[in-house]
Each structure stands twice: as structure tokens, then as C-alpha cells.
Write a structure and sequence with these properties.
single chain; about 130 residues; RidA_CS; RidA; 6 strands; RidA family protein; alpha+beta
């Protein structure tokens, strides 16, 4: 059985997808970009600012699913420019203090709305 995850504390899906699905005790969260949940506007112009907003959006989806950053088992991070990796990593590390997930980080040619960062997560959920 698949349980859909939706929260008003994260941006609405801007296409034919959901914020996340829970299957067999795992949350598969759609990639989050730095959009403000209420306005849908891009937050920040730097990689640090945008990563902070992305992590807020991810945290909201995790909370709605009954999970947290401590339960994230895998992240995939898409960066517009790998030159931003060190600055991105500084902010990212703040979300994962007690537990480190597996991670992939790749540079991509373009992201939705021409943002600088997108992050998707897989996390375990509390039963």
C-alpha cells in the first residue's frame, strides 16, 4: 500500500507528482527546490540561501511523514554548479549532525525555475 504525503509547509507539487510516498516503512520524497511554501517564489540568490530553504522544505515533508533528518538513509543532491559544492556542503552538514545518510551529488545543466539546488531524500518512517 502506498500512502501519499502532503503538507502545506512545503511547496505544492508543480507537476504531475506528489511531495512524497510512503511504501513499506520508507518515505520517498520528491526533489525539493528553494520555493517558499506559501508564495511559490524562489528564496535566496546564493547556494547557501537556497540550500537552507530546500532543507526547510525537506524537513516539513519528513515531519509530515513522521520522520526526521536522523531517519534519512539516502539523499540525491543536484547542483547547477559544482563550484558551489563547498558552500552547499556547509549548509547541508547542519541538517545531519548525529547521523549521516548515503549521498550522491551531481552537477546538472538546469533545474526547475533555474534554481541552484534540488535535493531528494529516502527516509525511514516511524511506525
Amino acid at each position: 500500500m502506498i500512502k501519499k504525503v502532503h503538507t502545506e509547509s512545503a511547496p505544492k507539487a508543480i507537476g504531475p507528482y506528489v511531495q512524497g510516498n510512503i511504501v513499506n516503512g520508507l518515505l520517498f520524497a520528491s526533489g525539493q527546490v528553494p520555493l517558499h511554501p506559501e508564495t511559490g517564489e524562489i528564496v535566496g540568490t546564493t547556494i547557501k540561501e537556497q540550500t537552507e530553504q530546500v532543507l526547510k522544505n525537506v524537513a516539513a515533508i519528513l515531519a509530515e511523514a513522521g520522520s526526521s533528518f536522523d531517519q534519512v538513509v539516502k539523499t540525491t543532491c543536484f547542483l547547477k554548479n559544482m563550484e558551489d559544492f563547498a558552500a552547499f556542503n556547509e549548509v547541508y552538514a547542519g541538517a545531519f549532525t548525529d547521523h549521516l545518510p548515503a549521498r550522491s551529488a551531481v552537477e546538472v545543466a538546469r533545474l526547475p525555475k533555474d534554481v541552484l539546488i534540488e535535493i531528494e531524500v529516502i527516509a525511514s518512517v516511524h511506525a
